[in-house]
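Late entry, NAP complex.
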Amino acid sequence: MNIAVITGASSGMGKEFTTRLITENDARIGAPYDEIWIIARSEDKLISLQKALSPERIRVIPLDLTAPESLSSVSELLSKEKPDIRLLINCAGMGRNGAFSEQSVSDTHNAIALNCDALSSLTNICLPYMTGHKGPNGRSATVINIASSAGFLPQPDFAVYAATKSYVISFSRALSAELKGKGIAVTCICPGPVDTGFIKASKNDPNATFTGIKGKFVTSVDKLIPASLKAAKKGRTMYVHGFSQKLLHVASKILPTSWILFFEK
Ligand SMILES: NC(=O)c1ccc[n+]([C@@H]2O[C@H](COP(=O)([O-])OP(=O)(O)OC[C@H]3O[C@@H](n4cnc5c(N)ncnc54)[C@H](OP(=O)(O)O)[C@@H]3O)[C@@H](O)[C@H]2O)c1
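Prediction complete; structure with ligand written out below:
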């Protein structure tokens, strides 16, 4: 059985990835898939998506990825079904906005557990099931990790989140180099602000929107997800979405960090 696995599929980018992979048959990486396994905590949202798209080909796996037993249950499921994983999209992520000193220990723990630990552990668990198929260009499978332009540089008032996304960038680059010989491509996606539920969750406010300079560069999943899939299909290791974020990426490499922190303030 050929499958794609997508975390964070109950909303935002993960939902859009799932929708596109089901509806755009010819554009899919590693297609055909017999099933797409979708993971998030909100079982009701996952079931609605399954019903709307393909009850036969979408498998709902409701899990809190910060709980260690969730990863064991994925591991057990894989060892029982022994699928050929052609695509893994690590999309689930969270971050708390605001001064670090005002954040709870559990907020800090959850961001690191989800953005770093679950992302790398799930990749670890999936890799043994990713080498069965040789597609075009000798590629057997693809891993897409969703990082953020927040990972390019430290961000006061988003300190833990930005650090976790630096981890995702560094991890993805190293993994990409390690897996090249095995025909597994790794693409790290770095968007700037995107119009999803993310900002509302990170500010714990259902009416929150991006403000200030970030508010000027908000993009939509309609633009981001097709461009991300295209970059992954080409086997690109890094994809920075949008001109403003590309500029920020270059600035983060050439300007002293103290200057950037000064401007951020
Ligand atoms: N939106 C932005 O501005 C932006 C910019 C750059 C990067 N990103 C990154 O893009 C990714 C997708 O975010 P998004 O913008 O699509 O935000 P979103 O709409 O809030 O989606 C986050 C997804 O993660 C899932 N999730 C959260 N906690 C989880 C947990 N403990 N276990 C399992 N799943 C969990 C959520 O589902 P449940 O709540 O149902 O569990 C949801 O499906 C994240 O990694 C985020 O850091 C976002």
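DSSP finds ten helices and seven strands in the chain. Will revisit in the morning.
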